User: Fold these one by one.
Assistant:
Number 1:
Amino acid sequence: MSRHAEIPFTKYHGLGNDFLVVQTRSLPRSLSDLARAILSRHTGVGADGLVVVLPPRSKKHDARLRFFNTDGGEAEMSGNGIRCAGAYLLGRKVKRGILEIETAAGLKTVERVAEGEGNWTFRVGMGAPILEPAKIPFQAADASAPVLGFLLRTHRGVLPVTVTSVGNPHCSVFVADFAGIDWASLGREIETNELFPHRANVEFVKVISREEIEVRFWERGVGHTTSSGTGSCAAVVASVLNGHTDRHVRVRTQAGVLEVAWPENEDISLTGPVERIFRGTYYYRG
């Protein structure tokens, strides 16, 4: 028997990476099914991701978040999605300047840096990068931490890659330019490489200077996105580990700039904008 539900949502985007944020007591039992339906750009509302806001497990925290991709898969963390949730929570009368939010990748802090009419800038405490292969997870028998210059077999031949996690698994590929490489096809292939048991987010990184990189993103369970918060963090971590950049880096995405800092022996911070697009009600027929 199908179940009908009216689900209020708010849509935001962080540099073109768009998310639907929902918080309701009457969510369907299968959030994966809901995600596939509501995120469809033809028969649903359409977005790159769904963020479900839930009560926190600890009363000391402001919320607990679950992130879902367009294919219904659940992500541990989303750097752009958590900023969208921060904007949503501020709109729900949460007045604290720094939010503490529970995710599957651990407790994250979201600090409001600036606020306008329907737009915000947030700084997210992303935690420390994970470099141990078993914890990423990355199942190459000969890989050791950090995984730099690993020779990954692809249809283009063998590519040197850097493998990290910022709460979700990432594979970073350095390129001289984007025009000379079919990066979307490569991203699709690398995402499902057998060495990544949880699949991988893939970044193609062009180094501009010691303080700036440009990146193209292939997100696990979504595909090409114009920006990615965790992808930007992973690209900067890879750039620092390979000696290409310093530790405070501007990340040029196809939709604008994110700022990533990884001070030595400290956590990563991600700073970027959020814009509210619209509110509505989705009529779900599960």
Note: The longest strand covers residues 268-285.
Number 2:
Amino acid sequence: MLSHEDLPGFQPLNTPGGQACIKEFIEQIGGVDLVFLDNVMSLAPGEMKDEEAWRRTEPLVLWFTKQAIGQIWVHHTGHDVSHGYGTKTREWKMDTVLHLTEEKRADTDLSFTLEFKKARERTPATRFDFQDVKIALVFDEWRYEITNAARPAKVSPLTGKALNALTNVLAGDQAVMLPGNRRAAHRDHWQAECGRLGLIDLSKPHSARTLFNKFRRELVTANRIACEEHFSWMIR
């Protein structure tokens, strides 16, 4: 934790002096992986409706990126709570924009809906990781509820057997753990299990690959599985 009161002569982060101070501090402590900057109005003051105040901050934004330092900038809404206050240009270079809207609950004062206004990493295979969600802190316990979760769709009987093959791999020693506590299967192991069950003919590589990819696409479209590169996992 670092407060601007801890830095004598602290200057705003949209000035060369303020940016130099932050860079020096990070170097002194041996580097960081992620920074939270709370908040834009306090750390990079100026007319929030005008892009100039934020434009002067962009050298620091780009420096964080070049150093492979993740950055989360906290900002506020105005009277219109549907978007961040002021110029939208501050979102242009960001990969993700999260928007929190107050959600009234009788049992807590800390409750909100989280939605992704922008998500560059969202793909057809990962779109369910970016669903709107209601989050609340109730009696010191975080609770959440997916607001519009897509229901799994029906799949053909043969594709259903391919899903069973994936389940077999996920239950065995060949499964791996991905970030986010996701138990996943490599496509080679899943494809081999499909062959063992007689769903595809591995002696015919081209037709086997074509049919396996059909299973995979159908299961993703039906919201049964998610995939990332060579790995697949179940959607609960």
Note: The chain has seven helices and ten strands.
Number 3:
Amino acid sequence: MPPVAAAQRGADTYEALIDRYARGDQQDAPVLLARWGRAEVTAAIGRAGRLRPGVQRAAAMLHTDAAVVLLAADVTALAIFHINAASRVLDEMKAGSRDARAQQFDARWHAFVASVYTSRAMIDYADRTLRDALTSYSREPLLYVARGALQEMRVGSAFVDLRSGNQIARRDRALEAAAADYRRAIGFDNRLAIAHLRLGSVHAAQRDDRARENFEAALASATELRDRYLAHLFLGGMAERENRIDDAQREYDAARALAPGCQTPYIALARIEQALGRPDRAREIATAFTTLPDKTNDPWWDYHLGGFDQVLLAWLRAEARIE
């Protein structure tokens, strides 16, 4: 992604891009900023002076979204530069205002950035981001969810020799550390569905019968479609493993109804039909997905492969809007 010379940018000054982002252009404005050179961004920030609190949130998220664009293009060093720029803007915001909204935005921004680093397997960066944030926001549940997810990423990225008692013990300690963070998050907010989902996943990996209770709690408290969708998939998976086929089918059908453009429920339902000796029906379900006109990103993959938190990103973007 080569930088764009200042002469080519025309009216797209730094202040203009912040204003575009604040007023709802949260797709093109970050792409434009991502094409600037580092020196030009630094100079523009210096010229901008102190921004108003609402504009500060927009500026921080403009840089954050630019970083997401750059990470997708594997321009890692410049992405980190933009995340650091966003952090400096938020430091100015906190210095000028200690109100609850500013504090919550800053805490959740750090949780999101940690999830971005985790999604890229940048473990040290994620760890440092969370460690710094938790010194200031020790009661923010989403920070504990992000730290637990990081612990799970460490487990998933490490080879575990099942013949090695030491490796198995290290894996189990990491999973329990993640579970402890999810329990802390639930202790601060018992209605936080993603924490219940994450705890249920750990319990399922540990063959702990409490997993179903966790997934049911997630479903009961979920306000986001993503969380309801994942809860149904997890409950369906548990029922399938326990050979409760009717229950599994019902849960997978519920997931498909919530997200008809996502692939995972179709795969699960086709698998059940195949197991029941109905290959024609399995093919019909698989074909139904392939012929859908509108396929969507499946939260299942973000959840399992360490994708960043889209729900948290949507919240931050909404907070950065200025009507």
Note: Residues 165-188 form the longest helix (24 residues).
Number 4:
Amino acid sequence: MCNTVEETARFRNAGIPSIFMNHNVFVDEALYRPLTIEKKFDAVYNATLQPWKRHDLCAKIGQVAFIYHSGPNTLEAYKMIGESIPGARFMNAERSTEPHGHLMPEQVNQILNEAHCGLCLSAAEGAMHSSIEYLLAGIPVVTTPALGGRDFFFEPEFSSTVEPDRTAVAEAVEHFKLAGLDPLQIRTATLRRVYSERERFFNFINGLLRAEGERRDIRDEWESIFCNKLLGWEPLDVFLSHLH
């Protein structure tokens, strides 16, 4: 399963059976949704505190909320970004029960709704789950050009692609701050495409089942097997038992 059409073609050319299926189609839309609450931030950036995420491009934004995952270099990055970006607000430091601790999805959703738009600023990565979480929460996206497929669900009305320049990013954020877009319209347009892509996925899986002599329809089982990002955690010995 590949995040872009180009990636799919490369795998197929190498003789590897592949389908185009952007992984953001599996983000749970029930976790991220519009709320009727006050806007507190010009923008929000849900991204690990690593240089390749290019937080420095936020330097000219008035108030920007950072959501992140704690790691080995978190404190060092926190200090550096805090010193270089006057409007930085670190949500994991402010709203977690532990210093720089984990935020639950409902906390993330609230922070997204407190921002006028979401940011996607890396030059290359995978499809970036937060890029669609922004849209499902009903906020538009400011992005830089990037490899990896995160723009698949972006619509021109709800996204702005700008060069990796601090002024350009800040101006795009200001545009959406003043635009007054309808959050439900953003979410509805996004879900329309998500459901269409999931239908493609269902048909593909059903084709695999039929090839194995199964007459099941994956749609009938989806509610019981679906989890956010199709990502589940289990003990190593249990995982290994599935491989035998």
Note: The beta strands are 43-46, 64-67, 88-90, 118-120, 141-143, 159-161.
